[in-house]
Amino acid sequence: MSIAIIGTVAFDSIETPRGMHERILGGSATYAGVAASLFSPVHLISIVGNDFPQVHFDYFENRNISTNGIERSSGLTFHWKGFYKGDMSQAHTLQTDLNVLLEFDPKVPASAADSRIVFLGNFDPELQRRAIRQFNRPELVVMDSMNYWIQDHLTSLKETLKLVDVLILNDQEIRLLTGIDNVVQALPHVIKMGPKRVIVKKGEHGALMYNGSDFFAVPAMPLDDVVDPTGAGDSFAGGIVGYLAKNTELTEDVFRKAVIIGTLVSSFTVRDFTLGMLERVTQDQLRAEYDHYKRITALPEEF
Amino acid sequence: MSIAIIGTVAFDSIETPRGMHERILGGSATYAGVAASLFSPVHLISIVGNDFPQVHFDYFENRNISTNGIERSSGLTFHWKGFYKGDMSQAHTLQTDLNVLLEFDPKVPASAADSRIVFLGNFDPELQRRAIRQFNRPELVVMDSMNYWIQDHLTSLKETLKLVDVLILNDQEIRLLTGIDNVVQALPHVIKMGPKRVIVKKGEHGALMYNGSDFFAVPAMPLDDVVDPTGAGDSFAGGIVGYLAKNTELTEDVFRKAVIIGTLVSSFTVRDFTLGMLERVTQDQLRAEYDHYKRITALPEEF
Description:
By secondary structure, chain A is an alpha/beta fold. Helices cover about 35% and strands about 25% of the residues of chain A. The first copy, chain A, has a single domain, classed as 3-Layer(aba) Sandwich (UDP-N-acetylmuramoyl-L-alanine:D-glutamate ligase). In chain A, the strands form two sheets. A nine-stranded mixed sheet of chain A has the order 5-4-1-8-9-10-11-12-13, sandwiched between helices. The longest helix of chain A is centred in the C-terminal third of the chain and has 18 residues, at about 250-270.
């Protein structure tokens, strides 16, 4: 069953202690889409400029990522420039050229309107709502956001949250959204805002899922070499929705597995620039990584 | 088999969003000792002033914590005053009265010299070495430290590390000790300094253990109510050494279980001021908490 992923397709210019790359393929929908495409066909819904090369469209199509929903505008493609240093946990922005993103008004093509799962990347919550309305009763609406929308567009964001089944945010964003410092204490308050389930991404510290009554806590894969953290959160979310789409029944067990898959997929993402490692991941590699992860986290049976 | 725990016994004056307490029983050896005493007899080695009441000595003795090694000096007991706010992850110090700690020169009583496990709380690395030498070939030397000793007494600290089997530090301290931002990358460098095993405590983010070849990563227990984080790290370490002492063979499996026990024990500590909740923990409660933790972290079996 297919997924629709709506968000940004961008050029990134990135410097990390491991190197510098100019205008490489990036954006939240790109990372989420490529991660999801490891498991399921994807409809990408975004906007790019006339500087966006055909080779990138071909790249998506070859991965079973439909680009029908990518609008081609006459302007320039969204461009982000930034760097990472030190413990690499924070991106430092040098330059943001919104360009065609200023005219972004997601149009869901007829071929994508029946998508079973809709993933809303981080963009204007008003546009997120407009996007949701174009789908025919999706089974699951999953949403990401960021501090900017929480701080400056909270009323609109809360309207969107009412339409969302699963919210994926990092711990700082959960604090900001609820005004509560203790993330565990904050989660029931998020549930009251609409989502039936919240997944907290904590980067190198793993993830925490809450379904309104039960928690699921997992550490991250220990990584001794982070090349470029860009796209970690987006591919975490993409891995989750991609894996969910593969399953007919969305049980608690399937959600738990999806969170682990997201964790593993994002750990591939950060081991190379842009989609270098993520795009090459095979099912066998994922299976081996899952076994490795299980060994690293295995609890002794009894007390 | 018994454990010797060497470190500070103190009065703490603490303010958190949940309340304020003056001159309550604290100190690294106190928290580690009470946590360890849940599993094994303990020898406490420390120094207090003449203002330290008999009722606290009785308290220790009633818990099977021998106080023979607690020197009574004529001065005043070490006193720390601080507060926590916001996400409670950082202690803010208002006042530190070292008092009798300035004359601390640990004397291991004959009754403790055959301890199988020695835990060195956070104090002057030169004194840590002097303490180790007073034991008759302990099977395991476990050590804690803090940024002050790493920054200002690094040469001395590295001498002590050569005598240590298991080092327990938080992630910032690991970075400081090695000069490496990526903690996973830093751990093999710590092993080269002497310890055969490193346990990284990450507070609300869980723990990471490295034995020179394999990792063990665990999340923390999700807690919606942190009353007072004081002693979390010390009782984490105390729970670990206490549980280890209960086992005749220190296998990898036993170490993994010990890290979980430390995680659970410290989660009891922070749910009340001073030793309020920690001291009342029963084996049944721990067993139930272990089962609860297993449910919260349970991975689906196959990929």
